[in-house]
């Protein structure tokens, strides 16, 4: 195993409250009650306090972030008066400063630990949101957006890598498949992405500045909670130098293959924001139905992620789970590609788009937890943060290039079937890239 599991199996300190006693019954509690009791008790009830804190962190991060992000483009175009190309440039900068720099945040988490990196990231996110609320010039907007993105590049890899490491400890101590923990993490993030825009929409009736300050307020609460609850040092997490890990990572072919396969999944997922709106517009003449399709995706993840993960963990290893998920995603693109020549419109025309969303979301439920669960087995000892961040950075570059290619196909005047058919091939090809060996099903 890539991390020092002998140390990691020691009792993880819980938050510095009376909840520490609860942590002792976390991962080890599964062994006490036997299989019958384990099946009755939910995964959440058996997690140690640190894991609970990190999962709730993901929920809070997304509530604060998605309270602001969905309304940013319109604010830039109407209130600030930016040209369309400039709005796109600013949004691209935000993505690059976040996703592209995940590898930096991961390396810093390996060097300095989770706590300081998360706290600094929260401070920067608070400053970025507050700045954005008062920004009224192009340079000011760009500065605030870069700060918001870089903040996530700090705290997200730190949190994600520690959740992955703790999930391995959970699995090895008999708590259950590591994918169950990572599925909870996914559900928490999706729930935050669902609740955040609802809060933002309510506050937008007052002013966009209020929305930004509310987002900053969420991160003030996160900062205060983590300053109090997050341990100074987590047993089993060895600090290493910032330098020295990148060369080994670039020579790790199995890990890079996983990154490319995960990048193919993310490229497919991002078509919710590129191909899907275009298809909804074609079918109905507006994008009103898009919100309902996004809501369907979120609802599926929140309600079905844990049962699906539980079912898959009993039957498939990580490689097969990712392969099946990628096949489902490819099937979603094929549904639209096959239906397009019929030229259906209205409610009937939305059925292929709904089928795409359902298959894409179910595929996501299989791919995302499995990919995160696989990283600890491919990472070099002490470099889990670097590897977790690198997977996001590499896949982000794939999404950037792939989305540009998909957009070029849409602008090339070819049949509307072509982009959907081409992107159906991408997940199938990604299956061939998956490393040949994955950890055996526990």
Topology, element by element:
Blueprint: H1 5-8, H2 20-24, H3 29-40, H4 43-46, H5 49-66, H6 72-79, H7 84-99, H8 102-112, H9 114-134, H10 138-172, H11 178-204, H12 208-229, H13 246-251, H14 253-269, H15 275-284, H16 288-313, H17 318-339, H18 346-378, H19 384-411, H20 417-433
Tell me about this structure.
One of its GO terms (cellular component) is plasma membrane. The chain crosses the membrane at residues 50-73, 79-96, 117-135, 141-159, 180-202, 208-230, 255-276, 288-312, 324-344, 350-372, 384-405, 417-434. It is a multi-pass membrane protein. Pfam families: MFS_1 (PF07690). It is found in: Cell membrane. With 442 residues, this protein is mostly helical. It has two domains: 42-243, Up-down Bundle (Growth Hormone, Chain: A); 248-442, Up-down Bundle (Growth Hormone, Chain: A), CATH 1.20.1250.20. It is 77% helix and 0% strand. The protein is built from 20 helices and no strands. Helix 14 (253-269) packs antiparallel against helix 18 (346-378). The longest helix has 35 residues, at 138-172. The protein is globular, with a radius of gyration of 22 Å. Residues 1-41 have low confidence and may be disordered.
- Order of SSEs, N→C? HHHHHHHHHHHHHHHHHHHH
CATH superfamily of the largest domain: MFS general substrate transporter like domains
- Overall pLDDT metric: 83
Annotation field: number of helices: 20
Count of extended strands? 0
Given this structure, which CATH class of the largest domain is correct? Mainly Alpha
GO molecular function, one term: transmembrane transporter activity
Pfam family, one: MFS_1
Protein name: MFS transporter
Subcellular location: Cell membrane
